[in-house]
Amino acid sequence: MQNEYEALKNLALDEGAALFGIADISKLKDKFLLSPEVLKGLDRAISVGLALSGAILEEILDRPTKLYFYHYRQANIFLDQLALKITTFLQKRNFRALPVPSSQIVDWEKQLGHLSHKRIGELAGLGWIGRNNLLVNKDLGSRFRLVTILTDMPLPIFSTKEDGSCGDCRDCIAVCPAGAIKEKKEDFDHIRCFEKLKEFRSQGLVDQFICGVCVKACKPKVNDF
């Protein structure tokens, strides 16, 4: 399956993706908000990431902007369309494929989707979970969006979970408008974060529960996207 892996990776990168990885999710599926019948046999997850515009993120100060909101939506649309192309690739080869929307929340109070794109991205070797409760990539920081495609194609796994950390960086703690980010990632306050997101939406700043402040703070370490 190495040829198929390379073909899929090239498809994603040629379309504009910045990150690509494969994860074995056979022991993770009980945490997904999808039925066991649907998930049966889908033991591989393709994780794809799109870099966000640094210029748009720089406009953010202590709250989301309308420009960021539009960019956020378009990035998700791009990823969902790319997931459909990957799904077509897999199905043409007689394998099952389940594209999971890049930004469809099932439980807003707990901020849960059908599955955790960031957890799968972590398992696929794309980064680690940072203090900001987001996936952090060594080259992009947290300035990217993710999408996941589940499949029964037995794709090879060349990457392992990246053993990274935020080290001495605490930039996100200082700027979080909700005070939700703590020293330890396990102490991230989901409730305070969600309350602030609701506040931003009620103020008419954006039409969705998003912020972007900690995304901006988690800057790339190598490339400036």
3D structure, described in words:
The chain has helices at 2-15, 36-39, 54-58, 66-92, 117-123, 171-175, 190-202, 213-217, and strands at 19-24, 44-51, 97-100, 105-107, 112-113, 128-129, 135-136, 144-151. With 225 residues, the protein is α+β, with helices and mostly antiparallel strands. The chain has a four-stranded antiparallel β-sheet, with helices on both faces. It has a two-stranded antiparallel sheet with strand order 4-5.
Query: Could you tell me the mean pLDDT?
Result: 92
Shape: globular
Helical/strand content category: alpha+beta
Low-confidence stretches: none
How widely separated are the two ends? 32 Å
Instruction: Determine Rg (CA atoms, Å).
Output: 17 Å
Sketch the topology as an H/E string, one letter per element. Answer: HEHEHHEEEHEEEHHH
Largest sheet: 4 strands, antiparallel
Tally of DSSP helical segments: 8
Strand order within the widest beta sheet:
1-2-8-3
Percent of residues in beta strands?
Answer: 15-25%
Helix fraction bin: 25-40%
Count the strands? 8
| Oligomer designation | single chain
Quick structural gist:
This protein is an alpha+beta fold and 225 residues long.
Provide the fold topology:
Blueprint: H1 2-15, E1 19-24, H2 36-39, E2 44-51, H3 54-58, H4 66-92, E3 97-100, E4 105-107, E5 112-113, H5 117-123, E6 128-129, E7 135-136, E8 144-151, H6 171-175, H7 190-202, H8 213-217
Antiparallel strand pairs: 1-2, 2-8, 3-8, 4-5, 6-7
Which features characterize this protein?
225 residues; four-stranded antiparallel beta sheet; single chain; alpha+beta; two-stranded antiparallel sheet; 8 helices
